[in-house]
Here is the input.
Amino acid sequence: MEIGKIPIEILNKHVFESKITRDDVLLGPDIGEDSAAVDIKGDIAVITTDPITATSYMAGYLSVVVVCNDLAAAGAEPVGVLSTILMPPESTQDEFVQILREIKEACRRFNVQLLGGHSEVSPVVTKPLIVSTGFGRVQKDLLISTKGAKAGDKIIITKTLGIEGTLILYNKEKEKLREVLTPQEITEIEDYINRLSVIEEGLIARKYATSMHDITEGGLFGAIYEVCKASKKGAKIYEDKIVLSSSVKKVSSFFNLDLYRLISSGSMLITTNKEDILISELKGKGIECCIIGEIVEDPKIEFVSSNGKSILIDNFPVDEIYKVV
Here is the structure.
């Protein structure tokens, strides 16, 4: 494609034809429109932004998921996304259109409006770069802050760790991994694309959580580090309380990665003093979860391994995914 803005005729066909699907969205993407308009009717507006840099696999879809998950971690219902897509000159129109298809598929799936964005071909990027901004809404009394964790809170994680990282790694070395995974594990991993969202658990947990954090870059260790630093508290986590999928363990072992430092979109970390009712509601919706430890007053983050050895988490970890991708 030629350097410069994506041609209007391509956007007309693949973006501007999309109808507004939410009543609270008043102005959406169109020719010459550089802004969107949303009627929040007294709620709190929650806004977030994130790039996709670790993978090209389903990058458009993931670009919507990651910002919606950030919104859900604040207790907000995702409303819309704006997507900036920068394409290198050697890319094709088909590659650009595929990214748009993935973005629109995620928007349909999660009832999110594509509000607009920007797209162009630029020599400053060597592969497609997607940066999405997510917009959500929440009642003031349901807004959740990362810094809200309190001593005595239980730490809950949903689903299994490593969902996103395992999916990325599997699609990078699919043929080799098929030799070590069982048919059931392969089926499970191929379905992980459907388990990346934490919107449902976020909207359930906001009634009971003191803090929430979707487990993304840096994995479990990154998420608990940020929660504790924001809250000025510490934590004690027990490895033998963490429920892990065999497929996640096998893939991490294949690449010799620490899965506790592996990007894990699809799993939410929740701190709460109402763990019984929260777990009951989550499991009632078919969302697996487990208590893995508790928040403590001493601002020290301790991970007790299954062999009884303690590890201190005293900095934000570099994600294990970057050893491979």
User: Anything to note?
Assistant: The chain has two domains: 4-142, 146-323.
